[in-house]
Automatic annotation (TrEMBL), chains A, B:
Gene3D superfamilies: Tetracycline Repressor, domain 2. The keyword Glycosyltransferase does not apply. It comes from Thalassotalea profundi. This is TetR family transcriptional regulator. It comes from the Bacteria. PANTHER family: HTH-TYPE TRANSCRIPTIONAL REGULATOR LMRA, TRANSCRIPTIONAL REGULATORY PROTEIN.
Amino acid sequence: MVKVSEHTRQKILEISADEIRKHGFTATSLSVILKRCDISKGALYHHFTNKLELGYAVFEEIYTPEFLAMWQPAVSGNDPIESLVDFFQSMLTNLSCEDIVCGCPLNNLCQEMSGIDEGFRLRILNMQQQLNSLIATNLVRVSSQLRDDINFQQVAYFIISCFYGASNLSKGSKNKDLFSQVINELCAYIYHLRKQ
Amino acid sequence: MVKVSEHTRQKILEISADEIRKHGFTATSLSVILKRCDISKGALYHHFTNKLELGYAVFEEIYTPEFLAMWQPAVSGNDPIESLVDFFQSMLTNLSCEDIVCGCPLNNLCQEMSGIDEGFRLRILNMQQQLNSLIATNLVRVSSQLRDDINFQQVAYFIISCFYGASNLSKGSKNKDLFSQVINELCAYIYHLRKQ
DNA sequence: CTACATACCGACCAAGCGGTTTGTAAATGA
DNA sequence: TCATTTACAAACCGCTTGGTCGGTATGTAG
């Protein structure tokens, strides 16, 4: 049996996710969320104890599954190198300029909230470690095809860093071009992981 | 002849720079600055027309020269490749954990302010382009020693991205380790720019 | 029909924000 | 010496923020 109020809760989560994605957590105003949801403050505080808990719920119930689904093609398939490159190249073709400039919520929240709130920091750290493990173990699978001097964890973190940095860098220029350049260079780097 | 009030102005700038570095521009409170400077609101608004102009002044008079001085060793010297690697390696030894977790003000402000305020965005973009040019032209100088397939602008942006991403990534973990790993991998990448 | 929980409304609150205004002591130029 | 500007101090203002609280309509179980 599905509770009726679940619909309200979901709406709050989705709109909050959208606001936080666009403006960050701190700059997201509850009153804006209330207006967009067309509900009262009482409704929101019936479902969530405070703004921070709402933020955690958004992270766990919206961003986490979204993030895992997004990266899934990058860390599956027979050829991890090709999967990674395809994944990044598909970003170049599929993502709009606004998407890129808006950036990855995980990266944004990491920068904004890590120093302020431990709850956010640990959730973010956990996701980053998960992603790192996914990439690293996937590369290990085909280590025989790869160079001998590779530190898999280090390479995985390097790839994530480049992605983070690329989206940060393109925020200043407000266009896809910088992002494309960095991602292309990243793909060249990834190819070079193979035995020459 | 030096104006007496210049001392007050400098103090405001330096303390504001410190606050903005630690908490970002929006989260920096004027009242905190006033307390730390031990001055009144009247003093601050005598020297700066509003918070935004104070922010611009901090960027231009504190962050910009600091940034250029910081990167200078990376883009000078006889061997650009070695200079870059030395520069990054010296960060690993010289920077404290807090420094790393706090991150580069340019990167932080880029993420926080690019989407909010054009004045900040253009100043940041300008600095990034300057840095990119410095790195790229420095590499061009020794292009005969480097691989033939190098796109210098792209490589320069890639290096900056990795640096940005590394400091972002380490914010979540609150220690130097992740930063070190990414920087080490970046140095390996930089060495690989040379002809093999 | 009664009793109680759920789901929500909307007025209200204290605190903090950036910014304005009024006032004044000190420095400066004529 | 006197008028004027400089360099502040401090009270004040409107506004927004997250958060609380009393009330209420709608179920729902006994």
